[in-house]
Amino acid sequence: MSATPAEELLSLLQLERLEDNFFRGESRDIGTRFVFGGQVLGQALSAAQQTVDPSRSAHSLHAYFLRAGDIDQPILYHVERTRDGGSFSVRRVTAIQHGQPIFNFSASFQVEETGVEHQLPMPAVPKPEDVEPTPALPAEELAKLPVKLQRWFGRSGPFEFRPIYPRDELNPPKRPPFQQVWFRLSERVPDSPVLHRALLAYASDFHLIGTTMFPHGISFLQRHVQVASLDHAMWFHRPFRADEWLLYSCDSPTAQGGRGLARGMIYSEDGRLIASTAQEGLIRLRAE
User: Radius of gyration (Cα) for the chain, nearest Å?
Assistant: First the structure.
């Protein structure tokens, strides 16, 4: 019996421990040309967490994508135990393939504390049950795409996405740089907060850079558009479950110099702000 997409993702996040500070992760071909950035984020966070006292939870991470990852080769993760203080621990992780770093990552972990609290309210949007799932591409449109992208659009991924205002990525209109998307893991998984943070890190790489292209009427599906993530930052605020509906509210304040900046806020269905993200990406327009 073959594994479900959610089971495959959980397997990806369960790294093989080679030594105290070295881990190995496999990759999964989901239809992207190179290793999906969210996979490396989730695996790096999993590696770092395994070297931290279980009483300390990740509250922030900052990462740079240095080189494209090879889907056909495993990834080695080296964790540097930078600091263990009274309340905080810091870890640096380097992901390596073919003897070269492809990704640098730093994460901070904190003992649970109480203190002052406030948050921005969740945008007023329809409930997830009132939003239609993203329809499948028509077969004739799917056939026009490169084989890799056919696999991307023709497969069922581990996460279900329901955009509030869907956009035709094959014929994208010009729109303001904002979007809201409901999403959740497609299956119920164990209660481990560590696991749910790694799953959210994986999912957080969807939709951000796409938002930067809205005002220009372009998308990553167009052959003359080159898009790549350059860096990624994430902050975890409150407890959550990745297998329950979450709202990803994204905006892009600027694009310039071949780069676009996107920000995201992730809310639980009851309106709690559970995480924030930021990402800058490469956006190049090439000759047709």
Answer: 19
Q: What is the C-alpha separation between 288 and 67, in angstroms, rounded?
A: 25
According to CATH, the topology of domain 5-112+133-285 is: Porin (2.40.160)
- Name the residue with higher pLDDT: 2 or 261: 261
The predicted model scores a pTM of: 0.93
Is the Cβ–Cβ distance between 11 and 131 less than 8 Å? Answer: no
> Rounded to whole angstroms, how far apart are CA atoms 142 and 177?
26
Q: How far apart are CA 256 and CA 133, in angstroms?
A: 33
Tell me if residue 27 is catalytic: no
The one catalytic residue in 27, 89, 276, 279 is 279
Q: Which of 46, 89, 205, 251 is catalytic?
A: 205
CB 212 within 8 A of CB 260: yes
Q: Quote the Cα angle for 184-235-181, to 5°.
A: 30
Structure tokens that stand for 83 in this block: 């600091």
DSSP string for 28-63: --SS-SS--HHHHHHHHHHHHHTTS-TTEEEEEEEE
55 is catalytic: no
Helices and strands, counts by H and E, the chain? 6, 12
Residue of 77, 78, 84 whose CA lies nearest to 52: 84
The partner residues of 21 in beta bridges, in order of sequence, read none
pLDDT digits (tens, 9 = 90+) for 174-197: 999 999 999 999 999 999 999 999
Distance CA 182, CA 244 (A): 10
